[in-house]
């Protein structure tokens, strides 16, 4: 290994340097402040946990994204979190154990074994909110509204929100009675929106069958008009499917009222995630960026695996991606330059300024340095026996 190789980072892993690091931290604080103003309490889950806890109720996808290591104290296998939602579910079900509604929010790094695409980071900064204890439509609306508010705080232009309902897929795939491998292949093809694969997998299904309906729904996406088309495809199907379509229509109508600047649509292939969603799901996009910038949905099954069945819904965002894509006004703060000399009055002046301002204290090696090159637009100078702040020339 050469000297230069010692400083190389793994693919998909990066240092975050100034000023970007400051912008990310500023947005993280603002998003968390927004969530807490809505009544969500901050939690800080651990970076590593035993695998049984991290994977509970989440399906196979999350396991593939998780780095694994051996605990030197117990010999048990541990994992570095790849998603914080299961951790929040564990905290609600086991650690807190509160009755009634629990609202939690969080923000922190997660680690992925593979990037989602060539330009994606393997160490995204995930922020999110989870609402436990309510199976109501009002809870789903609150969570979606809070996510859209967080995107507004981030300065995201022209947000588009896709709505879908996992119950539609679950009902049809259950009715079709495919074997496990075929069902997994269909789910994967739908999540990737691969219509040719679905045609191959479902092409032999007779008209009117559950498989044929799945194949037709994969081609349906768009605005409010596609709900009418979906109703035609699902005509005569179970009441569960009609109820899911009705819910999608009601939620979209209320969100359009509260967020007129957001465009809304329906995508019946919206199954991306970690296979733990059970009801209404959603994903937000911005033009020119292929990945969802925020996503979430209902996941009522995870809590039962922790010994306490609780309805739940939530969302997650990648703070790093939001900073890159947003049009958020960056408030650049300039500093005050303080000389290196020893003076009790100077020390008091610096301490007072630092209550509300940035003060950079010169060191002996800074002799001859132009303070403006250190991000300063003012300096402390002594006039009439007092230290005062003066604008730099």
Automatic annotation (TrEMBL):
<dbReference type="InterPro" id="IPR004517">
    <property type="entry name" value="HisZ"/>
</dbReference>
<keyword id="KW-0368">Histidine biosynthesis</keyword>
<comment type="pathway">
    <text>Amino-acid biosynthesis; L-histidine biosynthesis; L-histidine from 5-phospho-alpha-D-ribose 1-diphosphate: step 1/9.</text>
</comment>
<comment type="similarity">
    <text>Belongs to the class-II aminoacyl-tRNA synthetase family. HisZ subfamily.</text>
</comment>
<dbReference type="Pfam" id="PF13393">
    <property type="entry name" value="tRNA-synt_His"/>
</dbReference>
<feature type="domain" description="Class II Histidinyl-tRNA synthetase (HisRS)-like catalytic core">
    <location>
        <begin position="12"/>
        <end position="322"/>
    </location>
</feature>
<dbReference type="GO" id="GO:0016757">
    <property type="term" value="F:glycosyltransferase activity"/>
</dbReference>
<comment type="function">
    <text>Required for the first step of histidine biosynthesis. May allow the feedback regulation of ATP phosphoribosyltransferase activity by histidine.</text>
</comment>
<keyword id="KW-0328">Glycosyltransferase</keyword>
<dbReference type="InterPro" id="IPR041715">
    <property type="entry name" value="HisRS-like_core"/>
</dbReference>
<keyword id="KW-0028">Amino-acid biosynthesis</keyword>
<comment type="subunit">
    <text>Heteromultimer composed of HisG and HisZ subunits.</text>
</comment>
<keyword id="KW-0808">Transferase</keyword>
<keyword id="KW-0963">Cytoplasm</keyword>
<protein>
    <recommendedName>
        <fullName>ATP phosphoribosyltransferase regulatory subunit</fullName>
    </recommendedName>
</protein>
<dbReference type="InterPro" id="IPR004516">
    <property type="entry name" value="HisRS/HisZ"/>
</dbReference>
């Amino acid at each position: 290994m050469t000297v230069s190789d010692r400083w190389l980072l793994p693919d998909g892993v990066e240092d975050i340097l100034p000023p970007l690091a400051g912008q990310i931290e500023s947005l993280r604080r603002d998003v968390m402040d927004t969530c807490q103003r809505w009544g969500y309490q901050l939690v800080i889950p651990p970076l590593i946990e035993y695998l049984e806890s991290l994977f509970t109720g989440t399906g196979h996808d999350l396991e593939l994204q998780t780095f694994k290591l051996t605990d030197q104290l117990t010999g048990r296998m541990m994992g570095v979190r790849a998603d914080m939602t299961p951790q929040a579910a564990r905290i609600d079900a086991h650690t807190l154990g509160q009755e009634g509604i629990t609202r939690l929010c969080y923000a922190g790094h997660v680690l992925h074994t593979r990037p989602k695409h060539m330009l994606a980071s393997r160490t995204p900064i995930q922020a999110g909110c989870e609402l436990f204890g309510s199976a109501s439509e009002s809870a789903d609306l609150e969570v979606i509204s809070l996510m859209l508010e967080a995107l507004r705080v981030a300065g995201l232009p022209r947000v588009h929100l896709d709505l879908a309902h996992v119950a539609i897929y679950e009902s049809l795939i259950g009715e079709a009675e495919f074997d496990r491998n075929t069902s997994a292949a269909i789910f994967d093809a739908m999540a990737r929106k691969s219509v040719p694969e679905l045609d191959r997998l479902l092409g032999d299904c007779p008209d009117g069958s559950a498989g044929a309906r799945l194949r037709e729904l994969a081609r349906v996406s768009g605005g409010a008009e596609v709900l009418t088309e979906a109703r035609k495809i699902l005509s005569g199907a179970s009441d569960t499917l009609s109820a899911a379509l009705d819910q999608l229509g009601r939620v979209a109508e209320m969100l359009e009222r509260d967020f007129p600047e957001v465009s809304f649509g329906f995508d019946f292939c919206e199954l991306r995630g970690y296979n733990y969603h059970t009801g209404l799901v959603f994903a937000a996009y911005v033009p020119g960026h292929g990945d969802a910038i925020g996503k979430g949905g209902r996941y009522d099954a995870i809590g039962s695996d922790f010994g306490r069945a609780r309805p739940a819904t939530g969302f997650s965002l990648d703070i790093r991606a939001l900073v890159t894509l947003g049009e958020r006004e960056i408030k650049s703060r300039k500093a005050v330059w303080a000389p290196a000399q020893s003076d009790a009055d100077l020390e008091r002046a610096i301490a007072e300024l630092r209550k509300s301002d940035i003060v950079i204290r010169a060191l002996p090696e800074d002799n001859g340095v132009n303070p403006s090159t250190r991000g300063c637009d003012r300096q402390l100078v002594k006039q009439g026996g007092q230290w005062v702040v003066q604008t730099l020339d």
